[in-house]
Structure formats: C-alpha cells, structure tokens
Amino acid sequence: MKYIDLEFNNKTILITGGAGFIGSNLVSYFQKNYPDSHIVVFDCFRSEEKFSNGNLKSFGHFENLLKFKGDVICGNINNINDLHLLNNYKFDYIFHQAAISDTRVNDQEVVIQTNVNSFHYFLETAKKNKATLIYASSASTYGNLPSPQKIGKEAPDNPYGFSKLMMDQMAYRYMKNYPNMKIIGLRYFNVYGHNEFLKDKTSSMIIQLGLQILSGENPKLFINSDKYLRDFVYIDDVIQANIKACNSKQNGVFNVGSGNPRSFEDIVKILQKLLNTNLKVDYFTNPYKNYQIHTQADLTETKKYLDFIPKNTLEDGIKDYISEIKYIYKKQNND
Description:
The chain is an alpha/beta fold. It has a domain at 12-194 and 232-259 and 290-311: NAD(P)-binding Rossmann-like Domain (Rossmann fold). Helices cover 36% and strands 16% of the residues. The protein has nine helices and 13 strands. The chain has a seven-stranded parallel β-sheet, with helices on both faces. Strands 7-10 form a two-stranded parallel ribbon. The protein is globular and about 55 Å long. The relative contact order is 0.13.
C-alpha cells in the first residue's frame, strides 16, 4: 500500500537501525512498493554483549533482512569512522531509527552518548545532502504525566526518555536555523508487530503473552493490570506515519499511537479468544519504579500535519499478528 504520492523509486534511502524492528519493516515497505529505490541499511547488528540489566546491547539481526536487496553497512553510530562510510552516498531520505531503545538501561553516559551525540551527524548529513530526515523519538519523553500526552509537555524519568527529548530539542534548533530542511520527529508509543521477536526481552507484551499462552503457561501480569492502560500501536501504522512524514505540511515532532489506550488485561482476553484458550492469569507485584501507568497519544497535530489516521485497533493488530506468533512458537519448539 502506497500511503502518499511521492515517488521513492530511483531515490537513495538511508535506514539506520535497518536490521531492527521498525527499521526492517521500513526496508520491506520500500522494497515492496518501490523496487527501484536504492536502500542503504546502517546497523551495528547484535553481539553477545549485554547491559547490566541483562538485556542485549544491540538487537539488529540478519534474519530481519534475509530478503533485502540493497546495501548493508555494519557500523556503530558512536564510531565516526563507521559513519564516514556513509559519505560515499548522496541520500534523498534518511530514516534514523538506530538508538539504545531499552528504557531500563540506567547507564546515562552510554545512552546519551549513543542517542544524542550521534544525532548531530545525521542532522548535518541531511543538511548537506538536502535530504528529508525522519527520526525516532519516543513517548518516554512524557514520563508519567497525565494522559493524553501532548507535544510540549514532557517529563522524562529515565535516561532513554531524556536522550530522546534532547534529540527533539536539537531537531527544533535545526528546524529554526535551517527552515528549508525537512525534519520530522516521531514519538512512538507502544509499538508491536512483525519482526519484533528478535528484540528479545524488550519485545512487546503482545508477543510475550502470546508465547506464554501457546506454551500452556498461565499468562503473567502485574497486580492491577486492568488499571495499567497503554497506547498500543501496530507496526503497520508506524510505517504509515514514517512514510506520510515525508510529505508533512510542516516540520515538527509528532505523536504516533492509536489514540486509544488499552489494558494488559485486554491483550490477554484478545489472545485467549484468538487462540481458543481459557487460562487463569497469574498476578505478581510490579517490580519497576517510574512505570508508566497510563499513556494515550494526542494525535491532533499528527492528523492535521501528517494526515496520519491509525488503521488498526488492538483487536485488528493482534489478529493480523497472530499467525507470526504461532510460527515463532512452533519454530522455537522444533529447534
């Protein structure tokens, strides 16, 4: 499905973090709809290194790119020599998805260095190439502020959210100083869908609960999960937002969500209905501080300036996703 009338064929498109969840879905979108586009993926790919919280340091995986026909550059956005490899290209569009996206990483130095310092390079590259720059911001910038979350009211409570807010501030300065540049930041809410499994422990609750249920385990939720409401947005709608951002009526930072918060209890009910199960839910105490209790994207400006209309309810998204969850479960248990 082509979301806008812009022609991407014969354009050179950089997707950082292109072997990751959202990045690889962007790759698939362009390959399917614009086979003559020249796509360059820049990703550090995963190593066995882990943060102190036990999660992997990088999630990019070659399996997300098995059908990729463009250029792959293995590089780290912290390494200027790696970044200089991109100087061989003249980009028309830059989709900057690469980042440390684990909200539970408390090493402030590495998060801010990785996410903020490197962003200057991509802003400068976009300026030099006269390229459209679309980059990933995050709803973590809002912390635990009351819903609905609106641009301009932020209170991050972890290093990741702070790093994304600093990126937004840098972007706003470039928008002001270079008004001819096209720069759009997208604040993703809780994204789920195809290709997220390889995010390991940081994948969405939809797939984690789905795999629990398929294994016959009682789904596990925090106590009072019926009161934890999140704005879950399906990957197809996130791709829609990225593509429509290229044709935005004005620069800015915009929320990307469904606009309709749902509970974790809802996820379990939808999954159990689709999987024809009736397992008992096991509840346990939420161990996390600064846990977002309620998120809801205010989409007023996103709809106005990006013409973004989320197409998928939580029921729609999980129904479309369920066959992949079943496939992953089967693959895991056949290996």
